[in-house]
């Protein structure tokens, strides 16, 4: 606990010092127009920085209303991009000022006649304004993401090689969506379009890996008719995410919170989804079977709930040749599944959203969330076990996506070993 507190203090001080370093650059950019070199600008800037840094750290490490958390994180994230883009210009200007200072000092040293001390070398207003203009570019991209990225659904096709796959399941198609976050939606027609894209792929079975809502079950009621259309011949299987339990809302009593969860469970049932709460099902085709397992939320980070229990989840599945696990948080895979449950062939997750910002190409992907989660998007292998992380159908906090677009995943089960892995 003490070490975590020390880390939080260091993080906060580091962010505040970083802001103070950039302050003179921001002041110089509009010095003539706004008079920002005055004391009131510095005071206001520092006060805003303290509030934002404090609120962001509280949002990360403490349980506060999801709307407040999302607000702080979004503002911190957006301004952080501007600051990081602006930083090279401030550094370049400091190098320029240092060179000028050294040159003046050298000239004074060789001068025969004594000269008064040179005045402080001001920042370049041109450089600082150029930095702000450059910082506006990612802001424009974020604006585009708000307008178009939030509902720009993309289908990603992923073969899944399973050595022990029964012949009856060879070629079977699985669809996956995750992190609907219905409380964030503002375009019902676009949401319906995404569902139609999923159904147009004609999957044999569909997985939903958690976070149907942001905090309260009532958020999904306006979209229940749309998601009730999510059907598949062999069924729709679902599990819960960290937001589904109502932990991020204020409740008048524990019974009110329990009723909210009961209502969410009933909603899954009403939509025709088979919600797996630390339990499993046998999927049977032509006399052969595989296991579909669903574990409740289990996150390695301390601020996420650990409701998942793997022992009842795997109960009576010893005879099955393949076990597919639905578990919302991908950190569950490395923390528990890999070291303790080698019988799990593939785990399907979501949760990260790819931070709704980054780059995702065929052979390269990057997002800031990668510094928090080792596995955050796509397919991962470790020995004979696999993990797939879906970056989400909806969005939370930032009302859009930049580079990391909403995902509908279509898996094709293939009997055998992955030929690409044989070459490694």
Any overview of this molecule?
The chain is of the alpha/beta class and 424 residues long. The protein is built from 11 helices and 14 strands.
List keywords for this structure.
single chain; 424 residues; alpha/beta; six-stranded mixed β-sheet; 11 helices; 42% helix
Low-confidence stretches: none
Largest sheet: 6 strands, mixed
Considering DSSP H and I runs of 4 or more, what fraction of the residues is helical?
Answer: 40-55%
Oligomeric state: single chain
Report the strand count. 14
The Cα radius of gyration reads 26 Å
Arrangement of strands in the largest sheet: 1-14-2-3-4-5
The helix count comes to 11
- Would you tell me the structural class of the helices and strands? alpha/beta
Terminal residue distance = 42 Å
- Overall pLDDT: 89
What is the percentage of strand-forming residues?
15-25%
Shape: elongated
Element order, helices and strands?
HHHHHEEHEHEHEEEHEHEEEEEEH
């Amino acid at each position: 606990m003490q070490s975590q507190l020390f880390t939080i203090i260091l993080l906060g001080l580091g962010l505040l010092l970083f802001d103070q370093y950039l302050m003179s650059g921001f002041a110089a950019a509009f010095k003539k127009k706004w008079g920002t070199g005055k004391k009131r600008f510095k005071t206001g800037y520092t006060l805003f920085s303290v509030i934002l840094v404090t609120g962001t750290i509280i949002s990360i490490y403490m349980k506060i209303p999801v709307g407040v958390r999302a607000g702080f994180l979004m503002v911190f994230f957006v301004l952080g991009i501007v600051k990081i883009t602006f930083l090279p210009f401030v550094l370049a200007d400091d190098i320029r000022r240092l060179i000028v200072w050294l040159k003046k000092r050298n000239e004074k040293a060789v001068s025969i006649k004594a000269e008064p001390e040179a005045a402080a070398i001001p920042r370049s207003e041109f450089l600082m304004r150029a930095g702000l203009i450059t910082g506006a570019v990612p802001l424009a991209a974020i604006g585009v993401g708000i307008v178009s990225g939030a509902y720009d659904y993309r289908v990603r096709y992923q073969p899944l090689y399973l050595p022990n796959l029964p012949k009856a399941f060879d070629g079977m198609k699985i669809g996956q969506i995750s992190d609907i976050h219905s409380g964030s939606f503002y375009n019902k027609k676009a949401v319906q379009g995404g569902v139609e894209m999923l159904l147009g792929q004609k999957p044999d079975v569909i997985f939903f890996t958690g976070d149907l809502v942001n905090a309260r079950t009532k958020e999904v009621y306006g979209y229940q008719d749309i998601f009730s259309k999510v059907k598949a011949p062999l069924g729709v299987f679902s599990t819960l995410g960290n937001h589904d339990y109502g932990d991020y809302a204020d409740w008048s009593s524990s019974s009110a919170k329990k009723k909210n969860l009961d209502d969410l469970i009933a909603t899954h049932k009403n939509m025709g989804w088979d919600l797996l709460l630390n339990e499993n099902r046998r999927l049977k085709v032509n006399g052969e079977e595989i296991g579909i397992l669903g574990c409740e939320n289990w996150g390695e980070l301390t601020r996420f709930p650990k409701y998942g229990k793997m022992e009842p989840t795997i109960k009576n599945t010893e005879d099955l040749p393949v076990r597919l696990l639905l578990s919302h948080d991908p950190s569950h895979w490395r923390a528990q599944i890999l070291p303790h449950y080698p019988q799990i062939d593939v785990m399907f997750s979501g949760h990260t959203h790819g931070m709704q910002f980054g780059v995702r190409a065929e052979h390269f992907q990057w997002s800031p969330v990668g510094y928090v989660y080792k596995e955050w998007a796509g397919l991962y292998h470790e020995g004979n076990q696999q993990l797939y992380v879906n970056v989400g159908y909806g969005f939370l906090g930032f009302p859009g996506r930049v580079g990391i677009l909403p995902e509908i995943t279509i898996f094709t089960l293939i009997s055998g070993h992955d030929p690409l892995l044989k070459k490694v």
